[in-house]
TrEMBL record:
InterPro entries: WH_DNA-bd_sf. It comes from marine sediment metagenome. This is MarR family transcriptional regulator.
Length: 98
């Protein structure tokens, strides 16, 4: 797998997670895992990473160890940028060769 493909997959997952949390308003890692079909452990690590990047805010559920995540302003800006990049991507097949 080349670096470009790996980065595209990473950004697709980031877009998916940020979109879900934005749509729901806030969500636990359990809910995000359920909706994406990805393993809880993977979602948990990614949500922590996005929190540290300032893309998600979080707080603990009362009486629980579970975190509830919400998209921050920075996260909304990043999501808009990622979606804009998605729309402007050009496939190699679309480029005419002489």
């Amino acid at each position: 797998m080349n670096a470009t493909y790996e980065r595209a997959g990473y950004n697709e997952t980031k877009t998916e997670i940020l979109s879900i949390v934005k749509y729901l308003g806030e969500a636990t890692t359990d809910k995000i895992s359920e909706l994406t079909g990805k393993r809880y452990e993977n979602i948990s690590v990614l949500c922590l990473l996005y929190h540290r990047q300032g893309l998600l805010s979080r707080h603990r559920l009362p009486g629980s160890n579970a975190y509830v995540y919400a998209v921050s302003e920075r996260g909304i800006d990043r999501l808009n940028w990622l979606k804009q990049e998605e729309e402007t991507e050009i496939d190699d097949e679309d480029i005419p060769y002489n």
